[in-house]
Amino acid sequence: MYRSKSMLYLVLVAALALVLCRCDCNGGGETDSGSTPQDATRADAGQIDHAAGQDHTVRDSAQPHDSAVADAHAGDSTADDSHVPDGGIQDSHVVDGGASDSHVADTTIADSTAIDSHADDAGGAVDSATGADSSTADTGSSVDAAHGPPDWSALGVGFRMVGAIAPDHTLWQWGWSACGSGPCQVGTDIDWSAIGGSGSAASCAIKNSGTLWCWGNNSDGALGVGDTSNRAVPTEVLGDSTWLQVDMNGAGDLYNATCGIKGDHSLWCWGTAGQYASHTPIHVGTDSDWHQMDVGANAVCGIRTGGALYCSGTMNGFTRLGATSTWLEVAVWSQICALNDQSEIWCWSDPAATATQVPGSHVWRSVTVGGFNYCAIDDNAAIWCWGENGNGQLGTGNNDNAAEPTLVVGGAQWRIVQAGYQFTCGVRTDDSMWCWGNNKYGQLGDGHTTNRNVPIQVFRP
């Protein structure tokens, strides 16, 4: 009896030990990699989208910082601007991997489910085609490769619009126009050679033949087509002429004024150009020695043979400025600035004012004037900007005004820079175009309306 009870006791102990062993082994061993969402997320991490050239690495959606990304995209951008230097999401959750190709960057995104592909107001727009954050890092690099060609040959920045010509001689526009926030082709012609700054929702461009064509708002006759009817497509300016240059203005006393230089170097103006207000071009004076001109908010200025600089604030007569210098280029908008043959830049608040030299020891090669924002290219092909910067129009990575020229971020080399009203665009030596500053009307051409304080690249679709 005793032996039977002992044997029964041993059997029960062995059975209990077996049960405990099975429970401990299953509970403390490896878990099936497909059994949890977290593991599935990690399994997808680091996969490359070869079609877009992007590394869409997705971190564990259970990490606590995911909620910060969701809040940044869902919230008011003004709440984030203090710690988002370029208007985009610049924290450890969205990182530029630093790919050498400026069109294809390695982008790591924390929790892709928290990203709204249409979110502009959060500062960092996300491209719906690739899921990549198209905001630029401090180097001004482009992130999204799912765009069309990046190269441009000519640029015309205006009040709130931009026009440009591609290497195939097609004409493009964006901003305060029918095209909106991204480049769209204007017409189908492939023989465009030059474009001027735009006015109040109006633009003009020159064809390879030298003929001048304008389109857009024509309420003041700024298109030069003989009436005040708007034109949705480019329409040839009246008069059988060859044109070398054209420029328009969209604000100030010369709102909707247009001027151009013909092939014989005569100067012509129309629209709201003072005594030359007309629906067709009118010859300004009798001289035929104009080589370059610019139309600003309160003045029209031009450089004549020998480098003499003349300006008119009322279009009722021209005054010579800087008579002791030989001038190479003049730019007009909120003020008048000109570059002389000593590589100096001097500025006037109006034609009757005293000139002041732009400070610094730079050797300047080009100058542009916007709405109280100014930029210039030096002999190293770098862009320096100064003036007002409330919308990032200086491209310095912050929104601080600058009394002296400050280097635009990115370290690139540039061949063109043009300033508009609180924004700026430029073309680099590799023919890529970049814009920065006020983007309320989509004038930066990145498909969004978020201000940028560093350059963002403009692609054709």
Q: How is the main sheet built?
A: 4 strands, antiparallel
Q: Give the count of helical stretches.
A: 3
Query: What topology, given as strand order, has the largest sheet?
Result: 6-7-8-9
Please give the number of β-strands: 33
Instruction: Round the mean pLDDT to the nearest integer and report it.
Output: 76
**Global shape:** globular
Class by SSE composition: mainly beta
Beta-strand portion reads 25-35%
Name of the CATH superfamily of the largest domain:
Regulator of chromosome condensation 1/beta-lactamase-inhibitor protein II
Task: Evaluate the radius of gyration.
Answer: 30 Å
The CATH architecture of the largest domain would be 7 Propeller
pLDDT < 50 stretches: 1-13, 15-145
CATH class of the largest domain: Mainly Beta
Output the CATH topology of the largest domain: Methylamine Dehydrogenase, Chain H
Helix content: under 10%
Description:
The protein has 461 residues and is mostly beta strands. The chain folds into 2 domains: 37-114, no CATH class; 154-458, Regulator of chromosome condensation 1/beta-lactamase-inhibitor protein II (Methylamine Dehydrogenase, Chain H, 7 Propeller). 10% of the residues lie in helices and 34% in strands. It contains 3 helices and 33 strands. It has helices at 2-28, 37-44, 66-74, and strands at 48-49, 54-55, 57-58, 94-96, 107-109, 154-157, 161-165, 171-175, 180-185, 192-195, 202-207, 212-216, 231-236, 243-248, 257-262, 267-271, 278-283, 290-295, 300-304, 308-312, 319-321, 327-332, 336-340, 345-348, 356-357, 364-369, 373-378, 383-387, 402-407, 414-419, 423-428, 433-437, 452-458. Strands 6-7-8-9 form a 4-stranded antiparallel beta sheet, with no helix packed on it. Strands 10-11-12-13 form a 4-stranded antiparallel beta sheet, with no helix packed on it. Strands 14-15-16-17 form a 4-stranded antiparallel beta sheet, with no helix packed on it. The chain is globular. The model is unreliable at 1-13 and 15-145 (pLDDT under 50).
